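Subject line: Sequence and fold of a protein, written as structure tokens
Body of memo: The sequence and its backbone structure tokens, given next.
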Amino acid sequence: MQTKYIWPAIALALSACSTTTGNGLRFLVGEGATPRYETAAPQLEQLAKEWARVAAPGVLVVGDVGAMNALDGAQLRALHQAYARGGNADDFAARMGGLTSIETFGMAGLVKLERPAAVRLADVGAVGFVSKAGELFGATGDLVAARSDADGLLVLEKVLCKGSAPDFKACAARYVRGHFDPAGAELDGNLQPKRGGHRIDPASYASLPQGGAQ
């Protein structure tokens, strides 16, 4: 688990509450009656539907995984019906275990950019998710990659670096957190081409030298 240390003054002001905007930006705010982990699953479901409506197939996201939010069969079928243009909702519910978040940018406990991603049931045990309590204080889990499916929903594809490994920093240095098109060119937060952005290998997700391929 990778812990992002929060400035003392900020840490005193933070509570278990946050505000998420439609573009995936989450602002950590002050006192709140409802802990964020009690509302995380509904927020992620809504954000997943919104993402699927604007994302194209094959969009790649590299970032730090958050907490796992298990969804039951009815919730998964409803999610599929809300975003998918084809396929079978029962098959989707049988394959998926729930939703998580992937953080591509964070600023010292104040704000972070994260995207919702579905997690295959078969992959749940292989991913080092952060605890829901730890997520409240800026902790993250493994460095992962996700890819949007034919209907635009992000699906977690691969663990790139284990957050608990002693060589996590060295491993993570081979990757660039962010959004990328199917060819590996970096996109901005609105999924538009980013001027001067990085390039990655779309197969391995590894960062490529600026201006050329490895």
Notes: Residues 8-208 form one domain.
